[in-house]
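<goal> How does this chain fold?
<sample>
Here is the protein in question

***
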Amino acid sequence: MSQPVFPTARPTGAGWSEVDIATARAGLDGVDLIDVRELDEWTGELGHIAQARLVPLGTVTAQAVGWDRRRPIVLVCKSGGRSGRACGALAQMGFVEVYNLAGGMLAWNGSGLPVVKG
């Protein structure tokens, strides 16, 4: 197995890891960044990360059927709860490198990092 994209990420013991904002931002190239919020949140006040793709939580497992299970994936939501649930679901589906963005969009915005709004 190759070196994980985020070797300092904190394992949860449930087949996925938590990655902090600074580490994630430095390594977003080459990973799938999935935002599991709803469309109104994606376009709302917190905005979204430019590289992210919107896949609402209720559709993640259905859409993930066709995704590459070996490709690193980072999931994000407002605060980390819903994306953590999505991480668990993907880990159970056999995805091998799954990360939850710790603190979600609240932490991303709180760090002053760029977002797309609208």
